[in-house]
Amino acid sequence: STMVSNLFSSSSLEPDPSMPKWMAEYVCGAGLEIYRTPLSPHFEGTSFDNIANTMYHELGVTIFAVEVTDSEGQIQVVLFPSQFVIPSGVCTNVYVIAEDKAAADELTAFGTQQEDGTGANVPSAAAHLREVKRSKRQISRSMQPTAYEVDQDARLRKMQQSYHIVEKPRSLEECTLPRATHLSGHIIVTGSVQGLFYVIGPLRSRYITQTQSIVVLRPSPPVDWDDVALFPDVYYVQGSPLEPVDLVRAGVLTATKAVSLSNVSMEAGDENGETKEHLVDADSIFTYQGIVKSNSDCSVTCELVNPSNIHFLLQGDEGRNAQSHSSFLSPAYASGNVFLPIVLDRLSCQAYYNKYLLTILQELILVGGSSLARFNEHDNVTTAELYQIPVPRQFVGATYGALLRWLVLQQSMLPLALYRAPSGFLKNSKPYVLTNPARNTQIASQDLVFVLSATSPDLNQDAKARAEESGPVSPLHDGRHMNSLIPPKDNGTETSGESTARQQDKLPIENLEDANLRSHMLLIMKQLHSDLAGIQEGLEESRKQTRQQTSDLRQRLAQAPTGVAEDAN
């Protein structure tokens, strides 16, 4: 969410010498934006992957999408069609991640002053821009976001093309569970879920080969459940995320990810009915803290209405430092653990002037029009999706420029950003997103890479092994959880004595839930005991300081003249 949010909003932040190394690096990436610009005619007849590689190394920009005319004559925005060849004689618009508009416009003039093989000059950029104006009307018509049709049969066909779905819609009653303690590695969604389809839809996209179960935990059933009734493995558990018992019922002990959405229907106000901004996010913050204390290996993304509340999610120095910097520089935001709805306000302003942003957003996050369109076979158009992969072993310690060249030209994948792992050198305790890194950026072994790929990346065995060894460093990666609280499954390798003992120790599901609840309460008690011990230690230190101050005061009074001491007493 952080990478996409930064790309779709303007930023005035600049690196500062007083910033930690990680923050200065993060700010450089956060200041980049998406621009639409005509491509130089110099690239006519060149494949898109070669253009992307050349422009990154020549200009330091990332070209990640292009407008292509489909078989019906409509212009579609296609993400990284690696083998697509730029046609001759027409204006081709591309989408680029760059520092500013001037940097993006260099793509239009690139190579136009050179001569071709016959000695004739390549058409000028000005002539190319005139072609852009002539095609403007057609482009503006085709750049409208794709809406779902009212016709149910047509909508079902689109769903089958774009998502993992079941044959028959499942009612809310079928999907309601008294408890989800039997699930493992699932996602918990809490808070005010408005537009449930747009929360769950991206998690059921066709390009995701292995989906995770999703549990919606709410005090009342979602009113728009019918919109997600075709998605598999989506369940509802009735309860409050503020109650530890309900969190356990939702399977928090074995979940790998959780999303705490802001409860916008609840207003925090005083007796005069005035909303107190710092209390608006109380439910989200308490839910976040409850999940983290229950399962520290669960990666939690929290939505905060008020950006200034972000420091409540951080501990110690991080929390104090967050108050002295912009919320967008907080480690929690930079790591993707926080989503700020204020970003949508910025996007609305940007989209007013740049209508193409909504189309790009739809292509990156949801299922865009290009994945449903049909293209001419000779165009060789393939649509890409956004993935996250570990760094291949041979590129650990190498530069980002070398990695990009190999991924683009050898693997047909376009990297957009790095997810930088915690590092003592960079002085970051949390991972963070670095968009479009510089060519000489050195890659660490635990970093992850955001890539666009037409197929699910086939990671090599070394990369897979390292991903399993390193554990969770990203909201997109599976985490390890407290399996010790759940009896292990019989794998058929136990001795007869062990098997007999296991048979005696087996519990019915109700008793297992009770055991989980007791274990959960024990964890909370241990945490409270630790907190109280810290408070007691602080109080003891305060008593020592008070006694020392009293002793010093008495000594000064004893040494003072008699009249002054009597007046002081």
Q: Looking across the biggest beta sheet, what order are the strands in?
A: 7-6-5-8-9-10
The coarse silhouette is globular
Number of helices: 20
Largest sheet: 6 strands, parallel
| CA distance, first residue to last residue | 64 Å
* Rg (C-alpha, Å): 28 Å
If you had to describe this structure to a student in words, what would you say it looks like?
About 14% of the residues have low confidence. By secondary structure, the protein is of the alpha/beta class. The protein has a six-stranded parallel sheet. A four-stranded antiparallel sheet has the order 1-4-2-3, with helices on both faces. Helix 9 links the parallel strand 5 and strand 6. Helix content is 38%, strand content 13%. Helix 3 packs antiparallel against helix 16. The chain is built from 20 helices and 14 strands. The longest helix has 51 residues.
List its salient traits.
single chain, 569 residues, alpha/beta, four-stranded antiparallel beta sheet, 20 helices, globular
Short description:
The protein has 569 residues and is α/β, with parallel strands linked by helices.
What is the fold's blueprint, element by element?
Layout: H1 2-7, H2 21-30, E1 33-38, H3 48-59, E2 62-69, E3 75-79, E4 93-98, H4 101-109, H5 125-134, H6 136-142, H7 152-162, H8 172-175, E5 187-190, H9 196-200, E6 214-218, E7 234-238, H10 244-249, E8 257-260, H11 282-294, E9 299-303, H12 316-324, H13 331-334, E10 338-339, H14 342-353, H15 356-365, E11 385-390, H16 400-410, E12 413-420, E13 432-435, E14 448-453, H17 461-470, H18 496-505, H19 509-559, H20 562-568
Parallel strand pairs: 5-6, 5-8, 6-7, 8-9, 9-10
Antiparallel strand pairs: 1-4, 2-3, 2-4, 11-14, 12-13, 12-14
